[in-house]
Every structure is written in C-alpha cells, then in structure tokens.
Amino acid sequence: MYLPEHFAENNSSELHALIAANPLGALVTNGPDGLDANHVPFELLPEQGPQGTLQAHLARANPLVGQIVDGMPVLVIFQGAQGYISPNWYPSKHEAHRQVPTWNYQVVHAHGRLRLRDDERFVRGLVARMTREHELASGQQRPWKMTDSSREYISQMLAAIVGIEIEIDRLVGKSKLSQNKTPEDVAGAADGLARGGQAALAKAMGAHKA
C-alpha cells in the first residue's frame, strides 16, 4: 500500500478501534488458483498476541477451507469511513483555483498467519459472542439469541461452518483525511461531507487535524 508519512496511522489503539467498528474484512489469500478474497465479519481479540488476534468462521463448503495450511500468510483489509472530496469545499480553491478532486478514507491492513479451528466448541463460542455483540448493537428491543431456535437446528447450522484464527504479525494503517491541507481547507471539506450525509468521515477528519 502506498503510504505517505503524513497519512500513516501507527497508533495500535486507533487501528484496533477501526477494525472493531468495521468488522467486515476482506481476507486475501494466495492459493493454488492464485489470489482470492473472501469477505468475512471478524472478531478482534486485541490482547491475544503481540498485535491482536482475529477470529471468524467460514462456510464448510467454501473452497478456501480445503486450501488452508496452518500458518499460511494472509492479509485482511478493513475499510473505514470513505468518500469523495470536491475541490469546491476548499476555501483556497476559490482564491487560487489550484485544487483537484480526491478521495478520503481509512483502512487497516492486518498481516498474519491463518489457522483452521474446526471444532464445535470454538465455533459455538465465537458465533455466540459475535451474535450477542451485533444483536445488541442493532438496537432491537428483543435481540435474537441462539436459544430462540431449537438445539438441533443450531447444531445443524454450526456443523456447516468452520472456525479460523489469524494471529496478527503486523498492522498497517492509513488515514487519508486531508492532513496535507490547511486547517481551513480541512474544515471546509469536513463541512461539505457533513452536509452530504458523510458524518463519520467528517468526524474522522476533525479528529486528525492538519
């Protein structure tokens, strides 16, 4: 990933927070048929391992399951807030007319080693935790829980998936949030985003002052 110094995000807590807030990752592997990507929601265990550990599950029918070799290197890409930036939002554009469009975004690349966890206890615990977290976050009055379905049905569904675990070796973060612009231009772009409904990206820009 091209990473100019002023866009580099090196704070592990910030990188973990972005992963936790955007858990759907692109799991990139290099198998017998070449590069492949699977889009998978992950659970992050930040205290497990030097850089944290990612856990998830795959459909047992997914061809990737049969290609996993314990310890194989993988990359998981997490995408945060992102959006188009119009030159019209920069106050300096209206003075010097020397601005062009760009795209602001936040991403984390998690490099690590993949391991298959094909045991029912691991998968059941993972699904229970992730379900509990995301059901609560959905704001429902009565969140769904595994016991809403019969034990037999849940066991059947769990048998159709396998667990995976990735111990993170290296985290590479990029927050391209107009840090190379003046404070006035940053504020103008953030205001333009907010007016267009891009509140999350506008807030992220406000947290990374130029």
Describe this structure in words.
- The protein is an alpha+beta fold and 210 residues long.
- It contains seven helices and eight strands; from the N terminus they run βαββββαβαβααβαα.
- The chain has helices at 12-21, 63-67, 93-96, 120-137, 151-159, 183-195, 199-207; strands at residues 8-9, 24-31, 34-41, 43-45, 53-59, 72-85, 102-117, 161-176.
- Strands 1, 2, 3, 4, 5, 6, 7 and 8 form an eight-stranded antiparallel β-sheet that branches.
- The chain is elongated and about 70 Å long.
- The mean pLDDT is 94.
Q: Let me know the number of strands.
A: 8
Q: Treating each run of at least 4 consecutive H or I residues as one helix, how many helices?
A: 7
Q: Could you state the oligomeric state of the chains shown?
A: single chain
Shape: elongated
List the secondary-structure elements in sequence, H or E. Answer: EHEEEEHEHEHHEHH
Terminal CA distance reads 22 Å
Q: List unreliable stretches of 5+ residues.
A: none
Chain-averaged pLDDT: 94
The biggest sheet amounts to: 8 strands, antiparallel
Helical fraction? 25-40%
Rg, nearest Å: 20 Å
